[in-house]
Design goal:
The protein is an alpha/beta fold. It contains 14 helices and eight strands. The longest helix is centred in the N-terminal third of the chain and has 49 residues.
């Protein structure tokens, strides 16, 4: 067989495989988006039921790791103090992890007049090792039977914690519950608009859809509650994991507990506003995923929950399936455009690509509609995402592979850069709250 014919055959096979992979991902996520819709509808009824009931809420400690958070911590504490939760059963523990700015001073002023707020300064030499380490040290400072975790930039709605706790009280099979996070600075620039679409669609498909179909969800880094007894059994968070949320999610499921997604428990968080901050954050995510994959990959066949095993395998390979599919299709598309090679495999591939892109846009818009974010502007941005935002993931995954496989660089926690949000963004139009001590001084 002529060498040129063999090359065309090889490229045709690669092209066909890339089409199959992309279609598999799009079709599966469309199923999840539809399942997420039914979960959304069921959650509306569930929320009404919760609102009509009375609960005897137990003691909860909110752990908030903080490292140089002076730009956001006052706003965060202001939101925490508005929680619709019994005052005498709520503790807000700020874990000050070696901050060199005024984070400690700001929290200290709140703690002077507000008994629910407590500042824990990690001793010199024991901190600076990432979020998992800070959470483990903070856990030792409290004896509460339920532990909530929020990031230092979060402003949850007053009912967020109440809704999470009610689910744990109603279902003993739940080891942890998580709520929804939304982007407080979504209108800041093009990047934050893309991130807003990405995070909402991820939660409505991979969180809501998987819970509806398989009773599986994974913890995010914020807006979740976990049973203290389960945390103790698991010996806390894995301090080697830089994506501690996904790592502990697997161990919770291995223990036979479930993690439920509660979309009506809502918090608002800040997302990266610059591409450099976004790249650092997403690279940490992929490298954290690599660690989790290496830790659990060999254990997957022994999982009792086979749906969990399949889902875990899919999640751990998601970045790389996507990478191979999109790179191969991009390369072959460019080669074909410039007539470097000709794909001789017969088929309506133009129509196939157009339908795939249409379904990609459709499933994201369906997910956005649950939060009434299917605006004309977001429709236009979603249509652009595959050709723009999604393509940047090639660099992210490639960089993570280089750092982990070739350079073998030690995995370290990279803090997401904070920005000044402004007084009128997110879930509140109120100005940044002053600590209670400062308000009393003003009044005097």
């Amino acid at each position: 067989m002529p060498e040129q014919t063999l090359l065309e055959l090889d490229l045709s096979i690669i092209f066909l495989l890339s089409v199959i992979m992309i279609w598999f991902m799009i079709a599966y996520q469309l199923v999840l988006a539809l399942a997420g819709y039914f979960h959304y509808r069921g959650s509306l009824r569930e929320k009404r039921s919760i609102d009509s009931r009375q609960f005897d809420f137990p003691m909860v400690s909110i752990l908030i790791p903080a490292h140089n958070e002076e730009k956001v911590i006052a706003r965060t504490l202001g939101a925490m103090l508005k929680m619709d939760y019994p005052r005498d059963r709520l503790e807000i523990l700020i874990i000050n992890d070696g901050s060199s700015d005024s984070t400690g001073e700001i929290v200290g002023r709140f703690a002077q007049t507000e008994p629910r707020v407590r500042l824990y300064n990690i001793p010199h030499g024991e901190g600076g090792r990432g979020k998992s380490r800070a959470l483990n040290l903070g856990l030792r400072q409290t004896g509460s039977e339920y532990i909530a975790v929020y990031d230092a930039d979060n402003t949850p709605e007053p009912s967020a914690l109440k809704y999470l706790m009610s689910q744990l009280l109603l279902d003993s099979e739940l080891g942890a519950v998580l709520g929804k996070f939304r982007t407080v600075n979504k209108s800041r620039n093009l990047l934050t608009r893309f991130i807003n679409i990405e995070t909402l669609s991820f939660q409505s498909m991979l969180q809501a859809g998987r819970w509806k179909l398989f009773r599986i969800a994974t913890l995010p880094g914020t807006n979740f509650v976990i049973r203290r007894s389960l945390l103790d059994r698991l010996h806390g968070w894995d301090e080697e994991a830089i994506t501690e949320d996904s790592e502990i999610s697997i161990r919770i499921n291995q223990e036979g507990y479930r993690i439920k997604y509660i979309p009506y428990s809502i918090t608002y968080e800040q997302e990266p506003e610059t591409w450099s901050a976004w790249i650092n954050q997403r690279t940490r995510w992929v490298r954290g995923n690599n660690y989790v994959a290496m830790k659990f990959l060999k254990e997957i066949p022994a999982f009792k929950n086979k749906f969990l095993a399949i889902e875990l395998l899919y999640l751990l390979s998601l970045y790389y399936v996507f990478l191979v599919a999109i790179v191969s299709s991009d390369v072959l598309f460019l080669l074909g455009v410039f007539n470097v090679v000709v794909i001789s495999l017969p088929g309506p591939y133009t129509a196939v690509w157009l339908v795939a892109i249409f379904l990609f846009v459709l499933e994201i818009l369906l997910a956005l509609s649950y939060d009434r974010e299917d605006t004309p502007g977001n429709i236009a941005l979603t249509s652009m995402m595959y050709f723009t935002y999604c393509q940047f993931w090639i660099y992210i995954v490639g960089k993570a592979i280089y750092l982990d496989v070739i350079k073998k660089e030690k995995r370290t926690w990279v803090k997401t850069v904070r920005f000044d949000v402004g007084p009128a963004s997110g879930n509140t139009a109120e100005p940044v709250p002053k600590p209670p001590a400062m308000r009393s001084q003003d009044q005097g």
